[in-house]
Amino acid sequence: MLANNETGVVQELAALAQAATAAGALFHTDAVQALGKIPLDFNALGVHAMTLSAHKIGGPQGVGALVVDKRVAFAPLVAGGGQERGLRSGTENVAPSATRRACNASRKADRREASINWRMVARSQAMPKPTMA
Known about the structure:
single chain, alpha+beta, three-stranded mixed sheet, 5 helices, 36% helix, flat
């Protein structure tokens, strides 16, 4: 855990990641609490993988990211489908994916694409929710 949400302690992960790498281990950090609070530099941390969550920066609940060093190879736990570059199977959650795309487009100053994606999110949230009979 990079930053503790209860105590505010920020761990010095670069040295730990370096030691893990030297020992031949991969190093993952949960950076959810740090996102939007402190500068995050994946390369400077020296970790192999880092998890983030959109709701910490105003995004929808249930949307996250796994940032993985391109040099790390791993296989999916469940085969099938082609989602997430073949790393996961199953139905994609469209609204959060559109939200992520809208955020990326906004960041890149592509206002037209951002507008289209935000409308997709609004429409999907207005749809009736399935109920159990």
